[in-house]
Amino acid sequence: MQTTKRNNYINWDEYFMGVALLSAKRSKDPNTQVGACIVNAKNKIVGAGYNGLPSGCDDNDFPWGKKGEFLETKYPFVCHAELNAILNNIGMDLHGCRIYTALFPCNECAKAIIQAGINEVVYLSDKYHATDSFIASKMMLDKAGVHCRKVESTVERIELSFKESDV
Hints:
Elements: H1 12-24, E1 35-39, E2 45-50, H2 81-87, E3 98-103, H3 107-116, E4 120-125, H4 132-143, E5 147-150
Parallel strand pairs: 3-4, 4-5
Antiparallel strand pairs: 1-2, 1-3
């Protein structure tokens, strides 16, 4: 019988980023799947979302391309993961919460994050750091006092199994 706790468990940041990454698996976007998870000060999940169309808009009726005329692309129709997580929250005040997101938020999501009162952004990738959208986002988040940090993880990959015998 083991008398000490297991040592190789994931930390809170890895757990919540994992929820964000799992949420991204719901996205129908063929190019970019992003997820987000909002957590309160007591480490309770209060919202989650992924990039996708608004409720009531059939995924098959809208374009998913990245290039072409504006109305022939996904851009005017898709809600980003961060905005969806805010809109999908469980009905509580988000002041003082933190948001975990796979990609550093764009300027539009930064506005929603600030307005919602979220005070920390934890992100996995900032691969668009040289874009105007990122620069504007970073400027607004900094001025609003929203702390941003890249997640630090000791694990590279977590595998999930739906096989009953693995439980």
